[in-house]
Structures are given as C-alpha cells and as structure tokens.
Amino acid sequence: MKVGLLDSRAPRLGGYWSAYLKELGVETVTPALPDTEALKLGQQSLPGESLSVQLVMGRILALGRVDAVLVPEWSPVQGDAWSEALTELLTRRISGLPTLIAVPDGGPQLENVAAEVGLRLSQNAGGVRLALERARLHAHPREEMPNLSRAGQATVAVVGPRALLGESWLLEPLRARLEGLGLHAVYSHELPLGDVMKRSERMEMANPPAGERELFGAVSLLGGKGAVKGFLLVSPARDGATGAALERLAAKQHKPTLHLSLDAGAQDWPELEAFRDRVTLGTAAGTTAGEGGA
C-alpha cells in the first residue's frame, strides 16, 4: 500500500506520522510539486475557498497515484465546516480522490487513532504495537517560549491558525515586512501549546471550539507580557470563519491591534506602517476590528 503524506510544516506532529509509517514498513509518498505549484492546483480545483483549503487540496493532487492520504486535522473555529470535517468535504467536492484519513495533531486520542490507522494499513497487530512504541518519542516535540524582546525593536505578537502560520513560505513576505519596519514579531504557533491551552481556560465562551481556544490562549498569554506592545491577527484569505474569530478577539484588546487577511503572493501591506507607529509611539488607541485586509 502506498500512503501519501502532505509534507506540510504546519502540523506539530508531522514527524510523528512519518516516523510511525516508516516503522510500520508502509511506503510513503510526498507531493511531487513545489508548494506554489501545488497551491495553483488547489486554486483551480476549489476556486473561492480559503487559502488553507486550496493548499491541502493541491498537495493531495500533487501526490499522484496513492492508495490513501493522511490529512492532519485542523483545530476548528466557530462556523467553519472545513475545519470540522476537512476530509469529508474534500471527498464530496472532488471526485476520484484517494482515501483520505483524518489524523489528530496531538491530544489524548493520538495513539488510539494511530493504532486504528496502523491496523487499517498493515493488518499486523504486532507490528502496530512495536511501531507505536518506537514512534512515541516523536509525539511530544520540545517546546520553549520564543524570545519576547530584541534590542532596539518593539515586539508585536502575530496570532493566527497554525495551518497558516506554520507555512513558512506563505509567511515569509510578512515576516520580512515586519523586520523592515523594525518590529520584532513573536508568532503564536511557536508558543508552548500546553501554556496556551492553560490560558485558554479563562475564555468566557461556553464550550469553545479548539481552534478558538488556541487563538484566545495565545492572545491571553502574550497580552500579559510587558514586552508585547501590540497584536497582529492574521487569517487565511477567504476564510471568513477564522477572520470572524479573530475579529472577536480584536474587539477585546487594549493594545494596538491590526487584523490582516494573508494570501499567497502578497508582498506589501500599507496599513502596517500606521500600526508600527501606534506600537512604537505607545498610542493608547482602541482596536478597530475591521481594520486591515489584503
């Protein structure tokens, strides 16, 4: 059996699933196209959908002929069907796809799901038990707080879904722009997840979706740090549900806050200069929830 791995850097446990399948002796395949070309495939197949959905779709198509594909689950936000049922919706929208298997990106259910996937792929219970033991060391990647300050630069927190911020090639133009403006950026996907989720316990929403808990927890954790002077909230282009979740967060912030929608190929955001001035001058400006957009 030939199994596709999407070769994304965004999931926390991409290395776990790769190591696990290797221990099972399962042949794996990664996309044969560069990220930019895979995204073009996804845009052609699902025009109008969010950047993150198009990228996943393009990477699946770039795998070629495989029997199954492991698709890391996203942490859902309120009102987003894609993050709640990504594999099911892709299969409904595009015919002829290989079997798509949703796998968790951590959590208490990780090994149970891995065992089910292993039995499905290998039909070897003994091999599955051994593979689980050997892959376990990849299930808890080391996490440390990033450096919150840099000499001569004001610190801003960049908060958004891991499925976007974890794609360094998509984030690079924004990263370079912030550097050029003299801002030191701290990214939410680099924070220790345990600390983020602990801070999310303060969230007032009843039964919040996991994705909104992560976003809230990151803002709460970084908002309490004196070094952090402002927030840049970033959502994938055409992702209305994530954008709305970030708008709700933006409305509650007292530090300078800007919401941007990030798309592939974007190179400049004129509103960042005014945001930089608000941050560096320490202006006590309130959040404008609809500010920004790319």
- Identify the overall geometry: globular
Strand element count = 8
C-alpha termini separation: 43 Å
Overall domain count: 2
The quaternary structure here is single chain
Q: Please estimate the helix content.
A: 40-55%
Q: Rg from C-alpha positions?
A: 20 Å
The helix-and-strand class reads alpha/beta
Helix count equals 13
Averaging pLDDT over every residue, what do you get? 94
User: Strand percentage, roughly?
Assistant: 5-15%
Order of helices and strands: EHEHHEHHEHHEHHEHHEHEH
Report on this model:
The chain is of the alpha/beta class and 294 residues long. It is 44% helix and 15% strand. It folds into two domains: 137 residues; 128 residues, Rossmann fold (3-Layer(aba) Sandwich), CATH 3.40.50. Strands 2-1-3-4 form a four-stranded parallel sheet, sandwiched between helices. The radius of gyration is 20 Å and the shape is globular.
Question: Mind sketching the topology for me?
Answer:
Layout: E1 2-5, H1 14-24, E2 27-29, H2 35-45, H3 51-61, E3 68-72, H4 81-84, H5 86-93, E4 99-103, H6 110-122, H7 125-135, E5 154-159, H8 162-165, H9 168-180, E6 183-187, H10 193-199, H11 210-223, E7 228-236, H12 240-250, E8 257-262, H13 271-281
Parallel strand pairs: 1-2, 1-3, 3-4, 5-6, 5-7, 7-8
Helix pairs in contact: 1-7, 2-3, 6-7, 10-11
